[in-house]
Amino acid sequence: MTTISIPRRKTRQVQIGNVWVGSDHPVVVQSMTNTDTADAAATTKQVYELWKAGSELVRITVNSPEAAAQVATIRANLDAMGCDVPLVGDFHFNGDRLLRDYPDCAQALGKYRINPGNVGKGSKRDEKYAFMIEQAIKYKKPVRIGVNWGSLDQSVVVKLMDANAKLAQPLSADAVMREALIVSALESADQAISWGLDPNQILLSCKVSHVQDLISVYRSLAARCDYPLHLGLTEAGMGSKGIVASTAALSVLMQEGIGDTIRISLTPEPGGDRCTEIIVAQEILQTMGLRSFTPLVTACPGCGRTSSTVFQELASSIQSFLREQMPIWRLQYPGVADMTVAVMGCVVNGPGESKLADIGISLPGTGEIPVCPVYVDGEKTVTLKGDHISTEFQTIVLDYVQTRYAEGGAKRQEIKPKVIALKVV
Fold first, then answer.
1. According to the annotation, is 346 in a ligand binding site?
2. Residues that bind [4Fe-4S] cluster, according to the entry (predicted)?
3. pLDDT string in tens for the chain (425-residue length)
4. Cβ of 416: how many Cβ atoms within 10 Å?
5. Together in a domain, 396 and 304
């Protein structure tokens, strides 16, 4: 798959550890742990898993002295494991005290996330916020000013509501709330700059939990500043609801060139894999043609012609295999993430879709001859049949990767396939 050029909103560039955000840099995928940061071993393990899954920034909660005391240890543990992903400290309420009392924490983090609505009230708010900005300046750390619908600075809301009430044609309460989010973010950025923070160390976010509100807020925010913007539908929900809502909102904005980092805030199933949100973020970017992370598998949905589950099993098997190999392939075979693979279920669209992919296999539908033609770069190369189709097709994929994407070809690696047995009947 070839990436396409969607005109990006021109922004400042912000460096977060070894990651650049904004301007013409690729949209960055990030995630957040749900472990207790005070448990250094568990948090290190989850950060590492998120990084291996493709998270380019990982946010951790820093909410207590016990948590702050472990941040430097977590950073050291990750470095020892060869994991250089920048850590983002998520601060609320007591962030000023934690940054003051735990300088090792302040230094170990790659970025601070500060919610203006949860810093404090009145003069105390300004005092606490100013101190956190001073620490960012001292340790040369960028700051994400993250405004959230559920914890909005009420002084901003009251001020705008009062002004709105005096208008001849007042706006709706929802419109005022959306404006309050934007004003809070922009005014907080102006304050940070007045205290000495470099504008090139600022990112903004204004998170809400409804699709149309998010689109409206970010369109307006993007038009009124040049800071990089972090996109995310907060409290998106569980399962398909969270995936669909996040995809709908973020895709519209990114198609308009808005958004420099993204997170898919899914509520995991009990015991569910936190890495799911990373896969969703990657697939949104890849299916839009904005970035490539892993080879895409095209597979038909099935119909009355495909009463056998063979093509479904093969599609699932090969997709899992591709994801498992990507940490190795990404380093050894540049460009392999752009590869496309088709696993089709019958003769109607099977041969055509298989020819359009880099590698494709067309399995027989109900009543068809039990053979499976394989197409490589649009040409039929072999016909598979029998009980070992899955293993044989996987071998063909390995051959293709090692031949096409390695300079001058490559010697086959001994990779034992993790496959299921398939039999054409």
1. yes
2. 300, 303, 346, 353
3. 454 578 899 999 999 999 999 999 999 999 999 999 999 999 999 999 999 999 999 999 999 999 999 999 999 999 999 999 999 999 999 999 999 999 999 999 999 999 999 998 888 889 999 999 999 999 999 999 999 988 998 899 999 999 999 999 999 999 999 999 999 999 999 999 999 999 999 999 999 999 999 999 999 999 999 999 999 999 888 999 999 999 999 999 999 999 999 999 999 888 889 999 999 999 999 999 999 999 999 999 999 999 878 889 999 999 999 999 998 999 899 999 999 999 999 999 999 999 999 999 999 999 999 999 999 999 999 999 998 999 999 999 999 999 999 864 444 444 444 444 455 54
4. 5
5. yes
For 225-279, strand residue ranges (E) read 230-231, 237-238, 261-262, 266-267
Same domain, 316 and 248: no
Same domain, 77 and 153: yes
Of 288, 317, 351, which one is at a domain's C-terminal end?
288
Which CATH number is 340's domain given? 3.30.413.10
- Burial class from Cβ neighbours inside 10 Å (0-12, 13-18, 19+) for residue 173 reads exposed
Examine the domain organization and report whether 244 and 319 are in the same domain.
no
83 is in an annotated binding site: no
Is residue 424, in this structure, part of any structural domain at all? no
**Do 351 and 284 fall into the same domain?**
no
Q: Whole domain around residue 227: which residue ranges? A: 13-288
